[in-house]
Design a protein that fits this description.
The longest helix has 18 residues. It is built from ten helices and six strands; from the N terminus they run αααββααβαβααββαα. It is α/β, with parallel strands linked by helices. The chain has a single domain, classed as Uracil-DNA glycosylase-like domain (Uracil-DNA Glycosylase, subunit E).
Length: 266
Amino acid sequence: MKRALGAAARDVAAYIRTLDENLSEPPLNAGAAVPAAAAPLQAPSPAPLPAPAASAAPAAAVAAEDIALLAEKVKNCRRCGLGIARLNAVFGVGTYKARVVFVGEGPGFQEDHEGEPFVGRSGQLLDKILETVLGLKRSDVYIANIVKCHPMKSPETPEAHGNDRPPTPEEISACRPYLDEQLRFIKPACIVTLGSVATKVLLGIDKGISTVRGHWYDYPVELFGPGHPIKVLPTYHPAALLRNPNLKRDTWEDMKMLKEFLEKPV
């Protein structure tokens, strides 16, 4: 087993080395503090969006329709300045039947241009990890972000590279209800938070990712009532692995924990 895991880990490491060094995402160093303007990143508990209307249609069809309606709301959203500056809203991608939802910080340059989360180099690495460790495709899980629009240092120049910044608490608060509505529709068994920002926001803590990764937590928002918590597993953002391949071993252990969780009988 150790030999097989070691070989697989080397495959991921080799894949990382094939990627060039120019990241579109901002660096996410292990345990790095969020800039003072955005710390702490514990957004206030917002009022939930209106519940979907009851329907006699099959549950699967209702879920698909509800998610499509929510995606349209996000597309037209102007709750904060991000909705005015961005090129495309980045709602989410994957199956609404997913048992696991991966949540990152926010869209970057490439995502803003294509309207899909994690399509840059970090997304390529995330896809490789899903396939290598979990035996899953992007279409087998769901991938989203805390905010749905690209936070830019200079909103006037959306075509500029290196224009990324962390979302502010106000931007997070405005967008947070959309993520919780996605989770209500999908009803996942667990969430994997990618990086410090997503982890701090979803768990309501102010600790760095290197401190909290490798452990399971309960999502502090009761989306399905008492006694039905969603489990949360924090891990490093793929961009952190691209900058520091030494973090791949910890990420590998986190993904093994996720694999064991997903293989448990429902």
